[in-house]
From TrEMBL:
Annotated PANTHER family: L-THREONINE 3-DEHYDROGENASE
Cofactors, names only: Zn(2+)
Taxonomy of the source species: Archaea, Methanobacteriati, Methanobacteriota, Stenosarchaea group, Halobacteria
Organism name: Halobellus rubicundus
Family classification: Belongs to the zinc-containing alcohol dehydrogenase family.
Protein name stated in the entry: Zinc-binding dehydrogenase
Keywords linked to the UniProt accession: Metal-binding, Oxidoreductase, Zinc
Biological processes per GO annotation: protein tetramerization; small molecule metabolic process
GO molecular function, one term: adenyl nucleotide binding
Residues of the Alcohol dehydrogenase-like N-terminal domain: 23-134
Classification via InterPro entries: ADH-like_C, ADH-like_N, ADH_Zn_CS, GroES-like_sf, NAD(P)-bd_dom_sf, Zn_alcohol_dh
Highest taxon, organism lineage: Archaea
PROSITE patterns the UniProt entry points to: ADH_ZINC
Gene3D superfamilies the UniProt entry points to: Medium-chain alcohol dehydrogenases, catalytic domain, NAD(P)-binding Rossmann-like Domain
Length: 345
């Protein structure tokens, strides 16, 4: 089968590799679509920060929808079932797993550490295969993973009904946070995003006030309109300036939840927290293992009801052969209008 494999810095090649075989408790999935995630872009640009030489070449990709092609021993799910896959398998034995915090597993078996979804087929634990309703395609369901990351961040935060919110960055994760904050009864929701197309979709997803930080000072605008700053902010970019922007957008005793993935170290002034008793917390991934469907299920039901339109989330669907030029490089381009690109082998 064909697979797109990472060999080194900005070096992905299309290879012919042996098709995988499911073991006990596993399923073989024909991949319908795999979304390109921000973490994959970090792996592509800075592989040495994440992988040892012996780990490469490696097939990336963890936002996967597809169809069960074969099952291993002890698997009940039927061949032909359309599914969306969870990205990681928790160990089930560490203290985080014992407390039900499976996304914080100390021995997580991540898709980024084994062959992933930029391939024609992938093997995954059957426990990570979530069957889909008839009217939800596996291609559309591939967005369940990034949308769930935004949902989890909102659930992790102290956000309450009627709280004011700032979301810095309206990429795939930020859009998930906007939708979830709106559904939780928050408002007004301010969104700071320099790209016109992303601000447009942010408005459709529930943003009340749109700010272009390349044209005006987002912090000044938010603090002026609220009179004090927002109750809760979400940083969904992963850069020093956006972290500061999110924190400074909050009121005294406000909270910032960081969702963005940071490639580089940042300078940060703790006095921003101390002087106004602000707090900052992180949020990673979404619920996993036995709790996977708690958040995946919410997104799948939104797709089933038509409350979430995957076509407003996804900007391009490309073939495997074009994963570099029309996928990774398109997302990294300075003038890119892409939000979510699905690779459809």
């Amino acid at each position: 089968m064909k697979a797109a494999r990472l060999y080194g810095e900005e070096d992905i090649r299309i290879d012919d590799v042996e098709a995988p075989t499911p073991g006990p408790g596993e399923v073989l999935v024909d991949v319908a679509a795999c979304g390109i995630c921000g973490s994959d872009l970090h792996f592509y640009q800075h592989p040495d920060d994440f992988f040892d030489d012996e780990d490469l070449p490696l097939t990336l990709g963890h936002e996967i929808g597809g169809t069960i092609a074969e099952t291993g021993e002890g698997v009940d799910i039927e061949v032909g079932t359309e599914v969306v896959l969870g990205p990681h398998t928790p160990c089930g034995e560490c203290w985080c797993c014992e407390e039900g915090k499976y996304n914080l597993c100390r021995d997580l078996n991540a898709t980024s550490a084994r062959p992933g979804g930029y391939a024609e087929q992938v093997v995954e634990s059957a426990d990570n295969a979530v069957p889909l309703p008839e009217n939800v395609s596996p291609e559309d369901a591939a967005i369940a993973q990034p949308v769930s990351v935004g949902l989890h961040a909102v659930r992790q935060s102290p956000l309450g009904i009627g709280d004011s919110v700032a979301v810095v960055g309206a990429g795939p994760i930020g859009l998930g946070a906007i939708r979830s904050a709106k559904a939780a009864g928050a408002g007004p929701i301010y969104v700071s995003e320099p790209q016109d197309s992303r601000r447009e979709v942010a408005a459709e997803f529930g943003a009340d006030v749109l700010v272009d930080p390349s044209e005006e000072d987002a912090v000044e605008r938010i603090r002026e309109e609220t009179g004090r700053g927002v109750d809760v902010a979400f940083e969904a970019v992963g850069h020093e300036n956006t972290l500061r922007q999110a924190v400074e957008s909050t009121r005294a005793d406000g909270h910032t939840t960081v969702i963005g993935v940071f490639s580089d170290s940042v300078e940060f002034e703790p006095q921003l927290l101390v002087q106004d008793q602000r707090t900052v917390g992180g949020s990673t991934s979404h619920l996993l293992g036995p709790r996977l469907t708690e958040e995946y299920g919410v997104v799948i039901r939104q797709l089933e009801r038509g409350d979430l339109d995957a076509d407003r989330y996804v900007t391009s669907r490309i073939g495997l052969d074009d994963v570099v030029s029309d996928g990774f490089e398109a997302l990294l381009a300075d003038d890119s209008d892409e939000r979510k690109i699905l690779v459809c082998p």
